[in-house]
Amino acid sequence: MAVSFKQVTKRFADGTVALDHLDLDFELGEFVVLLGPSGSGKTTACRLLAGLEQPSSGRIEIDGKDVTNVPPRFRGIGMVFQNYALYSHKSVFENIAYPLRIRKVPAADIERSVRDVADLLRIGDYLKRKPAQLSGGQAQRVAVARALVWEPAICLMDEPLSNLDALLRLHMRTELNRLHRKLDKTFVFVTHDQEEAMTLATRIAVLKDGRLVQFDEPKTIYRKPANRFVAEFMGRPAMNTIDGMVEGGVFRAGAVACPVDRSDGPVTLGIRPEQIELAAASTPGAMTLTVDVKEAVEPDTLLIFQNSGGNAITLRTQANCDAIEAGQPVSLAFPKSALHYFDARTGQRVE
Amino acid sequence: MTTTAQPSRGQILLDRGASLPLILPATLLVLVFLVGPFYYMAYTAMTDLSFANPDQNGAFIGFDNFRKLVREDTIFWGSFWRTIRFVAIAVSIEFVIGFALAWLIWRYVERQRLLTTLLLVPMMLAPVAVGLIWRLLLQGDFGMATHYLRAVGLLSQSSAVFSTPSLVMPTIIAIDVWQWTPFVTLIILAGLMSMPRSPFEAATMDGAGPWRQFFDIMLPLLRPIIALVLLLRGIDAFKEFDKVFIMTGGGPGTVSELLSIYAYRVNFKTWNLGYGAAVSFMVYLVVLILCSVFYKAVYWKSADQRAQA
Amino acid sequence: MSKSWKILAFGILACVLVIALTPYVWILLTSFKGRLDILSPQPTWFFTPTFANYPAVFIDKEYLPLVFNSLIIACGSTALSIMIGAPAAYVFARTDFAGKEDLFFFFLTTRMAPPISIAVPLFLFFTTLGLTDTIYAVVIAHTTFNLSLVVWMMRGFFAEIPKEIDEAAMMDGRSKLGAFVRVIVPLAAPGLAATAVLCFIMSWNEFLYAFILVAFEGRPLTVGIPGLITPHGTLWGQVAAVAVVATLPIIVFTFLVQKHLVRGLTFGAVKG
Fold this sequence. Notes:
The structure holds three protein chains of three kinds. By secondary structure, chain A is an alpha+beta fold.
């Protein structure tokens, strides 16, 4: 069971192009995360797959069948909404049972299926309540249960965790991971939170302005971002990207100067904050910058430097920084193996 | 495991184009029973149709009726200006009193439910019943209100309100105020209740006194609702018929003949339907203008809210 | 200081309440008065009540069928306008299409149309159809003006239900239409009930359309009222009895829908 978007474009009535010739294929059993900032088209892609919207052009196939014009109820897809969309006049049990009732499943089977999925999501004790009597986390679980109870082949989740508080979100993340391992279903998960994407996805599709920027495993996305946008979007704090020039094997930009294996010319240098090293002033290739702000994020410390070019450079370290104060000069080194290069003009990754 | 079933044509029809069959019956009903009559009225207004005179069997006479109405019909203009005065005075008084009451309730009453519900009684009564009630109260020989008005000297011993021409319109205005002030109170109160607190708190911190807060913050915040109340009341008052019809029937003479009563008289007393249609058309025209102003005001407000969302 | 202001405010409100309610209380009392008590030039607040007025007018003068006519007209036009208007309101709340706001305004004008302007052509129209002097004519006329009330009010109630509920129902296996009928309508039931009650009130209270369209057979209570008033010797006890019967159910209903009244009276523009 494969899902594929073929040259899918979605243009809304007001003229906004939400998706621009999207091509995306994935297989059964994957946990695909659609990741991007707001307005990137990730939610639109999800709703197109659900059948809640129709593409302006292009086709969507499920299992080789063209479903572009098939209404939602014939697609075999379950969905969890950001605001849960529970039926407030029905009990939790009836909310979960609803897809089965529509499909005229015998009452005994409904009872069993609902109990099973409720136990799986640990909401078995709340089945008699009304949605208004549930906490955010419980309502979320009911929504997931309703999407899964009739065993659709694909389960869509549109920013399902964004209405939960931070702790609960971490917890639900773990639960979803567990669920995916156990059920072996296709999950399509929309989020703007890169950390959620990294922890949940088997593959992440990064979208920007309605286009697919990169579609890869999380670690590849992190380690080999396809362009400057992905590099800056993934990781907290974001990757440092510094515009500068290479002259005689040395990259220079303001106070930054480090040896690189590149020919001369303009380039954007990228390095993740956690890969910048604190070095002794005597280390070859080390540079000295002044600490602008120091933030302790125990057990880590963030040191933010103001480069003369105007760009800030952030360093994240677990080393003891008690001695370092704002305004003090510090020596840094950029290890060659940690460097990413991006085309100064297009922002594309260059090896 | 559920697989993707192949839907039939009919099933797909339930999903696509579902809007049209939902909205069509309503549109048709209005077209047939409202827009149709409207155009028929416009057409009739250009004929000499009359049920009273067999010679006038509905020949097309162009704008003659309107010409006569505008240029020669002093009774029409009398009732037109009478109606305008009625609307302007009644709605103004209702607004001022209604606003003051709403403010009092908002400011001083914590449990408003029972009070507002009781206040609603006059406006929920059928206008015909209201007319009837006041006709009884103001009856010349044994009316309860007549008795007390005489007792406090507001009315001379021998006269009755509805037979004293100079008192008829003021009385009708007073009764309209009695019936509809609660409406203004209710809507303005809803507006006051939905006002955010923070601008008032900010103004207090900025050193604005109660009067400044009233004029600089409360009135601007309430502006859309005030516009709404004035327009709704204006439109309804302009159409006023039931109460006056029951209480005075337009008399004595024509001193209380409002536009809709005049239209009724031309149509159903003299059965001069062509001319009556022209009168009706003028009434409709004024209401339509008020109505589109109302819609602009409301629509402008909702557009505002959309921008905030 | 503020205490005495509060007392003053309550004093004013109490006076207002007395002025607002006394006329109605008077008609209520009058309906239980005998002839002499009514005609007494000195207002009589305390008297021996009689129940004779009610049977006199409803049985002897045969006003009872008018009550049923009023009921049938109000129920019929309410049911019709809800059945026709609620689906349209749903479309207005959910779908975007060219000219939507214009069509919506068009529905508003149906409410605002002065009855005196529309009643004449409608009267001629129903005469051609042979429907004048039947209950159907009034039911249809009342439906046209109640329809816009339904469309305007229900649009607001439907819009308050998140769009995702429709979508969830569709993902759960409903068609678009099925989602509306099986999920959205039950969810909007309280609003629907309030709207229905308001429609009932509007129709029950309406006079002019009914007065012009039916003179005898099928006339509702409001149309029966003017017939009781004669230049001389009006039987005010009986008039009062009719007025009470014509208004009491409405007052009860008002208490029921008080919460939604503001929205209804402003066509959904103010939530209240």
